[in-house]
C-alpha cells in the first residue's frame, strides 16, 4: 500500500512548491506527497550575494518553517542566490531538507552565468526577479519559468531546476545505511 507524507515548503512561491513536490515524487515514487507553502523569513538579504549567504537563507527558512508548522514529515527550504565568478554573476539555489527524525539533506542546484544586461541591474541593488522582468519585459517571471526559463526558451524552467536539486538533497534519505 502506498504511504503518504506531508511536506512543508518554506516559501509561498508556487515554483518552489512545485519543484519540491516533483523532486520528492521522482525520488520516492511509491510515496504519495502533499506539499504546502508557508511564508517564512530567510534572515538574509532579499538578494543573497554569496553561496554561504544563500545556504544560510535556506537553513533559516527550513528552521522557521519547522517552528511554524511542527506537524509535518518533511520541511524544505529553497533559497536562490548569486555569486561573483571571474567577474560574472553565477545563479544557483541552495536546498535544505529536514525530516521529523532529525535527518538533514542539502544540495546546491546547477549554476549558470547571468548576462551582463541582468547582472548590472542586480549589482546596482535590484532583485534578480525584477531585473529579469525589466530585461525580458515580463511580469513576475520569478513565480513562473524563472531566469533559466527565460534564457533557455523554457527548455528547462526554475521549478525543474529545483526538482533536480531536491532529488540530490534527498540522497541521505534514500541511503539511510550510509553516513552523510
Ligand atoms: O517568495 P520567496 O520564497 O522569497 O521566492 P523568491 O522568488 O523571492 O526567491 P528567493 O528569495 O529564493 O531568491 C532570491 C532572489 O533571487 C531571485 N531569483 C533566484 N532565482 C531566480 C530565478 O530562477 N528566477 C527568478 N528570480 C530568481 C528571486 O527573485 C529573489 O530576488
Automatic annotation (TrEMBL):
Keywords: Hydrolase, Magnesium, Manganese, Metal-binding, Nucleotide metabolism, Nucleotide-binding. The keyword Zinc does not apply. Its cofactor is Mn(2+); Mg(2+). Its EC number is 3.6.1.73. GO terms for biological process: nucleotide metabolic process; thiamine metabolic process. InterPro entries: ITPase-like_fam (IPR029001), Non_canon_purine_NTPase (IPR002786), NTPase/PRRC1 (IPR026533), YjjX_NTPase (IPR050299). NCBIfam families: inosine/xanthosine triphosphatase, PRK05074.1. This is inosine/xanthosine triphosphatase. It comes from Tothia fuscella. The lineage of its organism: Eukaryota, Fungi, Dikarya, Ascomycota, Pezizomycotina.
